[in-house]
Amino acid sequence: MSKRNINEDGTTVIFGSKEMREPAPSEFIPQHKTPAQIAYQIVKDETFPQTQPRLNLATFVTTYMDDYGTRLMNEAVGINYIDETEYPRVAVMCGRCINMVANMWNTPEPGEWKTGAVGIGSSEACMLGGVAAWLRWRDRRKAAGKPFDKPNLVMSTAYQVVWEKFCQLWQIEMRTVPITHKHPTLNIEEALNMCDENTICIVPIAGVTWTGMNDDIEGLNDALEEYNSRTGYDIPIHVDAASGGFILPFLNPEKKWDFRLKWVLSISTSGHKYGLVYPGLGWVIWRDKSYLPGDMSFSVNYLGASITQVGLNFSRPAAQILAQYYNFIHLGMDGYREIHSNSMTIAKHCHEAIGKMKCFRNYSAELENPLFIWHLDPEYEKTANWTLFDLQDKLMQQGWMVPAYTMPKDIEEMVVMRIVVRQGMSRDMADMLLGDIADSVAELEKLEYPTPTRIAAQKAEKCKGKVFTH
Ligand SMILES: *Cc1c(COP(=O)(O)O)cnc(C)c1O
After folding, report:
1. pTM metric for this prediction
2. What is the pLDDT of residues 82-101, one digit of tens each?
3. What is the pLDDT, as a whole number, of residue 464?
4. What rounded mean pLDDT belongs to the chain?
5. pLDDT at residue 293 above 90?
6. Three-state SS annotation for the chain
7. What is the share, in percent, of the chain residues with pLDDT greater than 70?
């Protein structure tokens, strides 16, 4: 290769370079060097045609942070959280965040430091909560001289995929209570019917991914109180509050779903969802340290001091912890409430507008969280030449990501569409979206022939001999 003093002489012609007219490396690390400006442009442009993150209404995860939060994260991008000896103040900030989250959820634990752990997201936090429940159950079984080889866990079919991973990886039997149109949230009676002496915990969800609804956690707690005293079992609750954990304390502080309930022993949440931090950050809190089995803490001595650590990962970014601590200080309880209640107002505005369109029907009448699902009106659908999947494609052309998907097992014949409203979505943007939905529907209504997804749906309908939506 000829010698190129690209960095020094300032004559780099990025789009005149050979790299720009050749395929990007995809199999082998290139033998030769590529100037930084050109390599940067190649990498940058890989994501250039993607949609704007704030127009992605499919994700629950933060797509907007203010300049100071972003700056703190950028400045901390090289910090490894695990190097607590080098960065002891990061560990202190993490402990303070755990305290604040625990107190936000009404922990009864006394003392200066509450019991919890940081995770890379709710997934890691759920795993840690699940493992703790499994080990506590196993220890009790061992102490009682009973077999401990068949643990199970009970939750609804509207679980997030992490619970399938948890059960598969730790070989725990997953018992799921069907979500039905009659029982769109966890059916408590059915859940208790599935429990036995081998149940490590029940996992209700605050902010169900599929529907945006909340399981009735207080009702479950009351039913468990009766069930446990009748059977002599000690089946506890782990709340998967991935989004609800940062919504309920601000929008519905009176509602009891957290450590105010006796059988709630652990709660997990995503700091990177309604905690308003860029990914990845999760938190898990235990009712007090007696519920965090000692086997889950590992000590290492090679970082300059003896460090105790709870987590699946070892190295992890510290920037998210700084950002969470910044948000807590900067926003305060008031700021979080204002942002989330704006999201709620905007979600309700969209919900109402969509409910008024003759082709649609909302899944639930009320919103519990700033997100909702809707489906095609069953009557309208009979003669429609399109499906919500076609609408998803149309909206994608305008830059919006509004997902259409089938509901969980047992009601999987229903196709729904979902909008998650987060910080970064204004009323004006919502009105633009609603305008684009109306325009897209008007175009779809002009179709003279059914779309491929409609034909596929009709075929499936004929095979099953039942109506597509219900
Ligand atoms: C998002 C979500 C998860 C997984 O969380 P991550 O932070 O993406 O790992 C788990 N449970 C529920 C209910 C969720 O909404």
Report:
1. 0.93
2. 988 888 899 989 999 999 99
3. 62
4. 93
5. yes
6. CCCCCHHHHCCCCHHHCHHHHCCCCCCCCCCCCCCHHHHHHHHHHHCCCCCCHHHECCCCCCCCCCHHHHHHHHHCCCCECCCCCCCHHHHHHHHHHHHHHHHHCCCCCCCCCCCEEEECCHHHHHHHHHHHHHHHHHHHHHHCCCCCCCCEEEEECCCCHHHHHHHHHCCCEEEEECCCCCCCCCCHHHHHHHCCCCEEEECCEECCCCCCCECCHHHHHHHHHHHHHHHCCCCCEEEECCCHHHCHHHHCCCCCCCCCCCCEEEEEEECCCCCCCCCCCEEEEECCHHHCCHHHCEEECCCCCCEEECCCCCCCECHHHHHHHHHHHHHHHHHHHHHHHHHHHHHHHHHHHHHHCCCEEECCCCCCCCEEEEEECHHHHHHCCCCHHHHHHHHHHCCCECCEEECCCCCCCCEEEEEECCCCCCHHHHHHHHHHHHHHHHHHHCCCCCCHHHHHHHHHHHHHCCCCCC
7. 94
Among 135-144, 274-283, 289-298, the minimum mean pLDDT is found in: 289-298
- What is the pLDDT at residue 470? 36
Instruction: Say whether pLDDT at 421 is over 50.
Output: yes
Q: Please name each of the domains of the chain with its CATH number.
A: 3-49 (no CATH), 71-328 (3.40.640.10), 341-463 (3.90.1150.160)
Alpha carbon nearest to ligand 1 atom 2, residue: 242
Residues with CB under 6 A from ligand 1: 60, 121-123, 126, 160, 162, 205, 207, 209, 240, 242-243, 270, 282
Residue 137 pLDDT > 60, yes or no? yes
The pLDDT of 112-126, averaged and rounded, is: 96
Give the distance (Å) from ligand 1 centre to CA of residue 236: 20
Distance between Cα 376 and ligand 1 center (Å): 27
- 118, 126, 162, 210, best to mutate for ligand 1 pocket (most atoms within 8 Å of CB): 162
The pLDDT value recorded for residue 469 is 40
